[in-house]
Amino acid sequence: MNEEHSRALYDRALSVMPGGVNSAVRAAIEPYPFFVAKGDGGHVVDADGNRYIDWVMGLGPLLLGHDLPDPVEAAIQRHASRGPMYGTPTEIEVELAEFVVRHVPSVEKIRFVNSGTEATVSAVRLARGHTGRNRIVVMQGGYHGAQESTLVDGDAENPRPSSAGIPQSFAEHTIPVPFNDEDAMREVFEEHGEEIAAVMTEPILANYGIVYPEDGYLECLREITRDHGALLIFDEVITGFRVGGLGCAQSRFGVTPDLTTFGKVIGGGFPVGAIGGKAHVVDGFSPSGPVFQAGTFSGHPVTMAAGLETLRFAAENDVYDHVNRLGERLRTGLSELLVDRAPEYTVVGTDSLFKLVFTRDGPGPNSHEEQCVSGCRQEPTCPRYDHCPKTGADVRRSDTDRWRRLFWGEMKAEGVFLSQNGFESQFVSYGHTDEDVERTLAAYEEAL
Length: 448
Prior knowledge:
The protein is of the alpha/beta class.
């Protein structure tokens, strides 16, 4: 496989960009990443002309794939041709806001921003302003963007920054607890309940191996935050408009948060973020309330058009049926492969998300008939229940080095582009086909 052009581009990039990239995860692959020249349906073609089945999909935004349907492309071109941006409100941002409010259970009002990180930063500030409290509870191993309030490791007693450049005094306002641990959450609220502004969590840990919530866990979070006057924030930057269709993951689980953060799909492949929720909370944003929030490019008309037409197309066509069916085929096929190839590994995911986590132990090859065959669901009756990941720490203990250093490259050699590390989700798009699934499963069989 010729990669001379990618290598030359990376050599140039190292001279002008830190690590040769503009987002750290892109450099996770050694010795260097390949550079993409174009997308085509469910595939990408790199700078050297090599073609790959693309299950990264821009790390999630491309629900429809690389080839946009005519109405989506026409809307993007129409708004781009009218002018780059204006610094004033436009009708298209109102229309997208109305669409989201109609479909997402928790959202009565919404504020658009420019990235998932900006959304979570603003949501944390809003929660603190609304409650008059400072402390935020997050999940160990969860990820809420590159922001000071959530780049925190450790535990409830010893939080510490997970990045240089963040003062320890910032981290002391953040309380990390294990996902799926109701007892740990209750202990934190017993000790710090009057100081906690919000609990922020992904409804599914989708940035850390795709960890599904145990039955009743999200309901526990809803109950305990309500009882203590704190807000519940669902970070649906990844799961939003992927899990649970247009109602997002909160509709799947039947748990309504006070605030929800969005990104990725809601912008149709363009830079976007959003914070939605109960009107009396979201009205805390300026100019309605005292919590300052503003942005030059917020509500950008091209992004709003791309997001609205993407969601309209998904609503009016078989997009969710298609991507969820292929996702189930991938997860089921992987589960069948593992019986003989690697029974200790765990298939995770739901709807159009999938991942193979290289867990290090399991119940043995003879228990596969009773297992969750389409992705771990934390079912207590499943023979894998004691072995599948329930927290971010469980995923971290998996063989992520083997995944990245050996397995990823073998899949790439088979023409399959997977997420760049053992933590990030993989995504099915409307541009993928049954043939893509069959070729991918064959590649997994070869690589495993």
